[in-house]
Amino acid sequence: MTSSSAPSRKALSKIATNRLQKELVEWQVNPPAGFKHKVTDNLQRWVIEVNGAPGTLYANETYQLQVDFPEHYPMEAPQVIFLPPAPLHPHIYSNGHICLDILYDSWSPAMTVSSICISILSMLSSSTAKQRPADNDRYVKNCRNGRSPKETRWWFHDDKV
Amino acid sequence: MEDYFSDDDYYYSDRDSLDGLENEDSGPQWASKGPTSKVITKESLLAAQREDLRRVMELLSIRVHHARTLLIHYRWDVEKLFAVFVEKGKASLFAEAGVSIVEHQDLDVRPPQTVMCDICIEDLPSGETTKMDCGHCFCNNCWTEHFIVKINDGQSKRIKCMAHKCNAICDESVVRNLVSKTNPDLAEKFDRFLLESYIEDNKRVKWCPSTPHCGNAIRVEDDQFCEVECSCGVQFCFGCSLEAHSPCSCLMWELWVKKCRDESETVNWITVHTKPCPKCHKPVEKNGGCNLVSCICGQAFW
Predict the structure, then answer these.
(1) Which residues constitute the signal peptide according to the record (chain A) (predicted)?
(2) Which whole number is the average pLDDT over B33-55?
(3) Active site includes A143?
């Protein structure tokens, strides 16, 4: 069993493939500041390096995001998690799951990988304490067996961080 | 239509005996002695729904898909919808339900030859794109894919626009037209979901609980805690959809049904594991030893 919880793998639809190829080209021309796409030949799973923004709690730290795309991307949200070790943050669980509304209920097909990255960096940058969510242990225990964060019913209660 | 109003479709339900506790000042709904429930057959469902849609369309001068969006949001409670309209005004009523009626000024401006779709990031002739009432324009292929994903996800009743943070509900005729081009079966499913919303999202209407299902639903007029009878002959409590149980409360009845179910398990166990005593007829379980057992009444038997 892998910790990276591969979602049920259905090949990308034509719309998804075209769109991801376009996003990749756009990324190469104009990558979001602080992010580096680790080149692979797998269009369906991107691994992206995140550098903590200077002047924030995560300055000089590097983390890895794993983005898995479903068959019907972008009509369906991608699955985005931090690969271990996940940053210490009140909305990031120790298994790498991220509590961020745009990854789940508030996803819209008009968003892109790039816009997700910017939201995640802004979430990291606005943090004032390096700590795990209060319910971390309970949540992580419930997610064993490689459950996807997209199956979680998230409760977005805090819009400050 | 005629089905819906024909006498055959009217069923009078008896007031349950709690009625005795009510007196004259308990409100006008108790005073009326008219029909309190009626049967909606598969055939009259469309007409029943159209009637509510028509009332909302006429009062607010809006098109059918906007009326449906409002009614789904307000769970087919026309009076509640009108009350919100009077209290908070049209703008707030629409915004809450995700209805956006934008006055488009671009009628006399010639649309551009090509439009860039922000979803697939392609330039397309404007004829292959669709602009929703909220003003957001995307290409037909992307819209279609979006609708298919949402219908398969069980969200037919509230398919939102694809733009980020746009709360508008998509025009049902656009959904129907685009989806039926590639997936006629799914378009039918979409229509069925919209039609059945009138029953499933409506506190005044419930499916008849008969098995096998007779296909009917029952609509009650004012009292949602009455007992009703479907034209298939099934009588049930409108509150809990279980068999009619007045004067017992729904909660008590549920507990009773559960108890009976448990008890029947006991009966099963008794038939399998015991033998009645020939003298006192009590069930006796042999808990070991030889085949000669003695009952607590003193009788011994094989």
Answers:
(1) none
(2) 83
(3) no
